[in-house]
Amino acid sequence: MYDIKKEAAALTAELTLSEKVGQMLHKAAAVPRLDIPAYNWWNEALHGVARSGTATMFPQAIGLAAMWDEEFLYEVASAISTEARAKYHAFVEEGDRDIYKGLTFWSPNINIFRDPRWGRGHETYGEDPYLTARLGVAFIRGLQGPDRNGLKVAACAKHFAVHSGPESLRHEFNAECDMYDLWNTYLPAFEAAVREGRVEAVMGAYNRTLGEPCCGSKLLLRDILRGKWGFDGHVVSDCWAVKDFHEHHKVTRTPRESVALAVENGCDVNCGNLFGHCEGAVEDGMLTEAQIDTAVTRLFTARMRLGLLGAPENEEYVSTPFEAVDSCPHRELNLEAARRGLCLLKNNGILPLQRQAVTTLGVIGPNADSRRALQGNYEGRASAHITPLTGFRRLIEPLGARVLFAEGAHLYKESVSGLSEKGDRLAEARAVTKRSDVVVLCLGLDADIEGEENDVSSFSVGGDKPGLELPDSQRALMREVLAAAGEKPVILVLLSGSALTLDGLEGKFAAIIQAFYPGACGGKAIADAVFGRYSPEGKLPVTFYKSTADLPDFCDYGMANRTYRYFKGEVLFPFGFGLGYSSFELSGLDADEHKCVVTVKNTGEMKAAEKLQIYVETPGQREIHALAGFARVALSPGESREVTVTLAANAFARYNEHGDPVVVRGEHTLHAGFCRPDAQSVRLYGQAPLKAAITL
Fold this sequence. Notes:
alpha/beta; Immunoglobulin-like; six-stranded mixed β-sheet; four-stranded antiparallel β-sheet
């Protein structure tokens, strides 16, 4: 029997110290005398194979989270890994082993989206630890396949841990939180990724956590990750993060001290080149060659698990044809993902529109015909894009209707044309509004102004949002269109990766759709939803607050008054909220500490799907209530089904300061419904969840 770890150790032993160190950089050198080819560890697959040409571009991660669907996310990830294999083997055949061409993908991002200002929040699965854990495990399994020692591709859970901005401070920032929030908010998704998903890699964060730089943290990497959780994969630093140890965090004085701190605590491969100092660190006695051997053996183990370096190959993976990339089945899957993640947040009855009743449709806004707003960051190149404007034109113009378009405003600048006066597209927007029966106003953000530290514009602060308001250019456009519309209905479509506010004008819109960054087919999904070709079913994976004034300071990593679990005020749109075109009712709730059984019936007139959500309220705890289970239920009109939801293993427990779950004794209240059990969610959705008492 082929023992991968034994073979990896044997191969490591044949290398010189210099050759071993060369394997610890993300751009690993070839060792021709041992038939070890060059390998670049850096690749990305957040929502499709990124940065290496054409690939299917699925909705951004936050949009995939809005599906609230583990099984479907697994299918999406499986399609991504199929395209990854297809591209990898074609590249190797052509002799291309460059960056973004390998089989080790630094995805998913399972950080908690604790603050809506964070620019990278749209890379995550939202603000809830349980939802993030379930979706993270599904995505990892879809990427890696079922065999731990025969990986389809290698996934990487990032950024470990306690990391969510500010972007401008990430190289020097120390994230402080108490042990309760560490174990009950920031770590559960990573624990699930390791113990359930058996993720091959974990990436450390840039910042310090509780005083230690994450990529060299004894607490995080040695004590928790490898010690408590038994992680047996490899750890990679974030890019050039190790040099921050001495340049910004000031916990070491020299590059050699920095690499020694990282390696001795279990960081195996450096995104960057600082690990080139490892040889010198061994010479100085800061590291031993045995520690280098341990790291390189882990890296060779990973490559052998992928069927590389002479290890047994999975013929199914190796024979994946290049034609699998951007295939018709994957495009159809992409469209379905966009549909399932679209969130209908308001509908005064105007939706769905009847196609025959609309003679002229006005489509207005800087995101109406923006490819950038479809994708989010860490993207590849879709072979075709369907913007909202394109989607509406394809849908209704063949039926004799007219679509009028006006950009209306720049995404964030005062004017669209450089020599024009401020608001140079507002007149056109008013003209289109006055000549349309219905207006679809497409506003929001894109990944050029909402993203990483280097995604800087005059609107963002190092990639983060300064607040929750739309850029001034769009706020002006919103007011102008609403004023010009008079009694005409205006449907607002927001394409963004995070929560926004609407200046108190949400009541003026006939309907509001949050599309997030819906992928290359997103415009078709939006148009199809507006005209009733399917019923929206997405649920918000984040809270839409009314103002950042209601929140703690951005740099405060305590969870008090953050996210739906702890926030006590009224919000604009709640976590877990989303409407559809049909109606559902619940009955026959039967629950215990392990599962919840309830009958769901579609009482409407349209085939539709709803997301059954289970929350547990535990008196005396910090949380108001917490998600403990969810399930997608698709039914035809009049159809009913008994649905069983397995509850979270720790639904009635809390982690103590040592990271051990402890059951909370007493009476808990379980809520089963299509929204959260708070008063505002019930009012907006129009139906209260059922509830049951669980005594432990």
